[in-house]
């Protein structure tokens, strides 16, 4: 089967790609001399690791939001995580916490993302099972409120603060501190593993709530658990790296065309493929221009055409895939 | 022995509006049953309650002696499965992947499909003639192929009870029969209990040994096809005429929708004046307009449901102010309209002191030798102090007015050109 071969390809190629990423950096292309430039090597390694973790988190969470909300346009930020985290980051930067403690900014962003989601869930689940449209709609509304608060804060702040906030919002992997990186690695690994174990529930949920129920799934619990895990992943990614677009939307679609829609394969493929993809984008963001450019620019520039090529070669009705 | 399905005094519905009302039902294992009834009769709600999607507000639903909402989900999936009318799958799963979903609750979280799981999937694919399409994405397939894949999924699930919710209504004749034969085989050989909702009375009659006719959330008729599918019961439930023929040789039943209500345009050139109010005249206004009659109505109160319908249909109407008793002026206006009519119709309107004056129009019409038609059941709708309305309607009847049941009765009685 094509999809099985592709799955092997994704898993097999990923370490190779990550290895290549380590060779790239603003100080030149090639393996740095271990003895002389040991620090540079460590710097690059942790940067690649950060890219991999964030990419994996965003892609997995995108897969799950698309499956549970049964919507091809769903992505990790669809329920307002991004705006909430943005608000949290802005507050951390403005109050000076971000300057004082290295962990303050990601922590604030993460907490605000979680708070936003709690509000969205609360708004939409007045009946027994949260309605999908209710979730999306309240996500959009809460997101809009957070955005306007954020705009207000930006408009009222100093030039330097404004620059910091905007740079954060563009999304970058500008070396999170070691404890942040370690903690996020644990969270992302746990989240992805949890979702992988929920593969059969996710498969059933894409057939709709009723069919999933008939197939013997605890629908309400499954939806809640899947959305919570996906949110945990998204909030972690936003907290560490700001808003990196495109990965969470497109990598799931790309992986679906490659390895099929069965979540037992799709979840690991999205985690590994998405991680490798973001690591590559970040490597390019560091090297193609004399000045580092936001990685979000690269993800869209690189992923968009790639996605269009896939789309052209495999034209199937329904979802892209 | 415990019944496969046992419903006891089940009341259930959505948001405080009960659809099923005190429904009790017993179905033995191995039965093959057709569930019939008009739209809104409660067929789908019955299925939701049986499959545990909807918890009844009162009463009990037992499958094989166990209350359905107390069953662990996996056990419930082994007990009962549903074939929906269609399944919207937004993700491009292949047919094989879809069929494997039938095994979801049988496969452990930490294990992959066993040989038995694979065997069941294989068998389901063969049974439904879906081996050729096993690697094709579901959303690339035709409606018939897709439905076969879904039936295969339910076969792989291997339940003891199968609910078919208009499962074949999108299929062509050939595939419809094929799926029904497949289900019949499961029923006969494996003793699977089958309940099917169908709007195709013919298929229901042919494949079920027992039919249950629902209306307004209760069982109206329950028995063999020939006992349930009578012209009388169908007419009462579906509000239209049907012809039922039993073939003397094969015993097969054929049902013909009766020659439809008088052809559109049959009422051309005929003026009818209707008296209604509160929405009771809506069906009469609508059906008579569709048949081409020229209608007038009144006196109605402004803002009344019937007045709105009459306005929407372009019917000339004599109107009174909202919530006011009929005035002399309004009555005179209605009288002018009624004078042009060939016949007058009194809808099943409740009577109070405010609208009693409308009966004057009927008196005058009878005096002028025009036919007058009165809806039955007026005795129960009289809210005047001394039951004046009943007395006056009875007087009208003795003077030659005609009673009618509903609008299907009424149309053949009306004058023709």
Short description:
Chain A is an all-alpha fold. Chain A is built from 14 helices and no strands.
Explain the overall architecture.
The complex is a heterodimer of chains A (321) and B (417). With 321 residues, chain A is mainly α. In chain A, helix 2 crosses helix 13 and helix 13 crosses helix 14. Chain B has 417 residues and is of the alpha/beta class. Chain B folds into two domains: 253 residues, Rossmann fold (3-Layer(aba) Sandwich); 143 residues, Ribokinase (UDP-N-acetylmuramoyl-L-alanine:D-glutamate ligase, 3-Layer(aba) Sandwich). Chain B is 35% helix and 24% strand. In chain B, the strands form four sheets. Chain B has a six-stranded mixed beta sheet with strand order 6-7-8-3-9-10, sandwiched between helices. Chain B has a six-stranded parallel beta sheet with strand order 15-14-13-16-17-18, with helices on both faces. In chain B, strands 2-1-4-5 form a four-stranded antiparallel beta sheet, covered by helices on one side. Chains A and B meet through helix 9 and helix 10 of A and helix 2, strand 6 and helix 3 of B.
Keywords:
heterodimer; A: 321 residues; mainly alpha; ABC transporter involved in vitamin B12 uptake, BtuC; 75% helix; B: 417 residues; alpha/beta; Rossmann fold; UDP-N-acetylmuramoyl-L-alanine:D-glutamate ligase; 2 domains; 6-stranded mixed sheet; 6-stranded parallel sheet; 18 strands; elongated
Helix/strand layout:
The complex is a heterodimer of chains A (about 325) and B (about 425).
Chain A (H helix, E strand, L loop, with lengths): L1 H21 L15 H31 L12 H15 L1 H4 L3 H21 L7 H25 L2 H12 L7 H20 L1 H7 L3 H6 L4 H23 L5 H13 L3 H25 L7 H19 L8
Helix pairs in contact in A: 1-13, 2-8, 2-11, 2-12, 2-13, 3-5, 3-6, 3-7, 3-11, 5-6, 5-11, 8-11, 8-13, 12-13, 12-14, 13-14
Chain B lengths: L4 E10 L2 E11 L4 E5 L6 H8 L7 E6 L2 E2 L5 H7 E4 L11 H7 L13 H13 L15 H15 L3 E5 L7 H18 L2 E5 L3 H7 L2 E6 L2 E6 L1 H4 L2 H8 L3 E5 L6 E5 L13 E5 L6 H9 L3 E8 L3 H9 L2 E5 L7 H12 L3 E4 L11 H10 L4 E4 L12 H11 L3 E3 L2 H7 L4
Parallel strand pairs in B: 3-8, 3-9, 6-7, 7-8, 13-14, 13-16, 14-15, 16-17, 17-18
Antiparallel strand pairs in B: 1-2, 1-4, 4-5, 9-10, 11-12
């Amino acid at each position: 089967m094509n999809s099985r071969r592709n799955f092997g390809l994704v898993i097999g190629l990923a370490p190779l790609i990550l290895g290549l990423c380590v060779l790239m950096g603003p100080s030149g292309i090639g393996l740095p001399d271990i003895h002389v430039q040991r620090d540079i090597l460590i710097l690059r390694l942790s940067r690649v690791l950060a890219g991999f973790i964030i990419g994996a988190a965003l892609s997995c969470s995108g897969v799950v939001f698309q499956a549970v909300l049964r919507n091809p346009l769903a992505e990790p930020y669809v329920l307002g995580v991004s705006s909430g985290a943005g608000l949290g980051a802005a507050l951390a930067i403005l109050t000076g916490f971000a300057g004082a403690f290295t962990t303050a900014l990601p922590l604030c962003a993460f907490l605000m993302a979680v708070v936003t989601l709690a509000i969205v869930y609360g708004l939409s689940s007045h009946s027994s099972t949260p309605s999908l449209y209710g979730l999306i709609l309240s996500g959009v509304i809460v997101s809009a409120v957070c955005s306007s608060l954020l705009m207000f804060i930006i408009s009222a702040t100093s030039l330097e603060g404004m620059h910091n906030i905007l740079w954060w919002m563009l999304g970058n992997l500008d070396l999170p501190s070691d404890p942040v990186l370690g903690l996020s690695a644990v969270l992302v690994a746990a989240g992805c593993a949890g979702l992988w174990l929920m593969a059969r529930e996710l498969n059933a949920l894409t057939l709709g709530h009723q069919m999933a129920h008939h197939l013997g799934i605890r629908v309400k619990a499954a939806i809640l658990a899947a959305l919570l895990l996906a949110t945990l992943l998204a909030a972690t990614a936003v907290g560490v790296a700001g808003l990196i677009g495109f990965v969470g939307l497109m990598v799931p679609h790309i992986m679906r065309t490659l390895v099929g829609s069965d979540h037992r394969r799709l979840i690991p493929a999205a985690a590994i493929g998405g991680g490798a993809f973001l690591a590559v984008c970040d490597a390019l963001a560091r090297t193609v221009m004399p000045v580092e450019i936001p990685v979000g620019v690269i993800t869209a520039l690189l992923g968009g055409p790639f996605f269009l090529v896939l789309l052209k070669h495999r034209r199937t009705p329904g979802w892209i895939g | 022995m415990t019944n496969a399905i046992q419903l006891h005094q089940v009341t259930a519905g959505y948001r405080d509006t009960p659809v099923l009302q005190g429904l009790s039902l017993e179905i033995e294992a191995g039965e093959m049953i057709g569930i019939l009834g008009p739209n809104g009769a409660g067929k789908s709600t019955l299925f939701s309650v049986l499959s545990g999607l909807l918890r009844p507000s009162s009463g009990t639903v037992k499958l094989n002696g166990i209350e359905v909402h107390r069953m662990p989900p996996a056990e419930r999936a082994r007990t009962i499965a549903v074939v929906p009318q269609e399944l919207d799958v937004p993700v491009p799963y292949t047919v094989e992947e879809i069929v494997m979903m039938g095994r979801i609750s049988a496969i452990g979280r930490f294990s992959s499909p066993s040989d038995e799981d694979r065997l069941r999937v294989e068998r389901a694919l063969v049974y439904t003639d879906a081996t050729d399409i096993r690697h094709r994405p579901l959303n690339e397939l035709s409606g018939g192929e897709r439905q076969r894949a879904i039936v295969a999924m339910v076969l792989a699930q291997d339940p003891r009870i199968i609910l078919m919710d208009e499962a074949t209504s999108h299929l062509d004749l050939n595939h419809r029969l094929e799926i029904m034969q497949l289900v019949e085989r499961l029923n006969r050989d494996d003793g699977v209990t089958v309940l099917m909702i169908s709007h195709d009375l013919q298929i229901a009659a042919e494949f079920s040994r027992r039919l249950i006719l629902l209306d307004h959330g209760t069982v109206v008729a329950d028995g063999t096809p020939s006992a349930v599918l009578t012209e009388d019961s169908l007419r009462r439930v579906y509000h239209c005429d049907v012809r039922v023929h039993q073939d003397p040789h094969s015993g097969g039943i054929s049902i013909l929708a009766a020659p439809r209500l008088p052809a559109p345009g049959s009422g051309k050139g005929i003026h009818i004046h209707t008296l209604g109010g509160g929405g009771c005249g809506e069906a009469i206004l609508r059906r008579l307009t569709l048949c081409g009659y020229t209608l007038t109505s009144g006196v109605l109160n402004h803002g009344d449901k019937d007045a709105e319908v009459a306005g929407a249909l372009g019917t000339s109407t004599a109107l009174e102010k909202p919530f006011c008793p009929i005035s002399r002026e309004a009555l005179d206006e209605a009288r002018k309209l009624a004078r042009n009519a060939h016949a007058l119709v009194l809808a099943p309107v409740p009577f109070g002191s405010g609208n009693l004056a409308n009966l004057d129009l009927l008196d005058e019409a009878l005096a002028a030798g025009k036919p007058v038609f009165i809806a039955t059941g007026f005795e129960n709708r009289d809210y005047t102090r001394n039951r004046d309305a009943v007395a006056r309607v009875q007087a009208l009847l003795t003077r030659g007015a005609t009673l009618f049941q509903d609008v299907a009765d009424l149309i053949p009685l009306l004058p023709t050109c």
